[in-house]
Amino acid sequence: MLLIPDRDVETRRLAAVRRYEILDTPPDGAFDRVAELAARIFDVPVAIISIVDEDRIWFKAHHGVSESQVGRDPGLCASAILRDELTVIPDARRDPVALTNPLVAGKSGFCFYTAAPLRTADGHNLGTLCVLDTQPREVTDKEREILRALAAIVVDQMELRLSARRSLGQAARIPSSVE
Description:
This protein has helices at 7-20, 29-42, 76-80, 102-105, 141-173; strands spanning 46-52, 56-63, 69-71, 87-89, 112-119, 125-133. The chain is α+β, with helices and mostly antiparallel strands and 179 residues long.
């Protein structure tokens, strides 16, 4: 089922994306390690930490693919952020929305897609932590919990970076006393 974002909700979500100042930042070891760990835990060739922008899905970290972004439409992650729970597509070849995605229809031929939204404390889904495989498969309850926990670690890292930037910005604005 194709979900369409509410315009006001999407405007607030994009403002939250901008607040984190994460788009187009260089690779970061913490995020790269989470993507690699997700791929290993799920025993899949690909794991991605994505941020959904206005017209693209940008990969903050990616394990197993060389692309650093894809168009938003049709985007699996763009659909996944419209839900607050996990998105699980056991066989994308049987999903009418997923069939048009270049990662499914293209040479990669991904069949399996599962994503946990990167949900901020104020309720915005900025992107996803997703895992992909070329073989259809099911997701266990334990795997669901693991993916949610890894996504929470990604959001915690984003919050830490935002807090550090704010602290540095405030420190720069505080005049030093001269005695």
